[in-house]
Amino acid sequence: MEKSVDLVPALVTFLAAAHVIALVYWIYRLASDRQPPKQKPQ
Predict the structure, then answer these.
(1) pTM (whole model) above 0.85
(2) 35/13 Cα distance (integer angstroms)
(3) Domain count, the chain
C-alpha cells in the first residue's frame, strides 16, 4: 500500500509535465497558424 502512496507525487508530476508540454505545443501551433497560409496546388 505504501508504494501506491509514493506513486501519487510521480503521477502528479507526470501530469503537470504533460500539461506544460501540451500548452507549449498549442502556443507553437497557434504562432505557426498566424503566418500567412500558403496555398498548396492540387
Answers:
(1) no
(2) 34
(3) 1
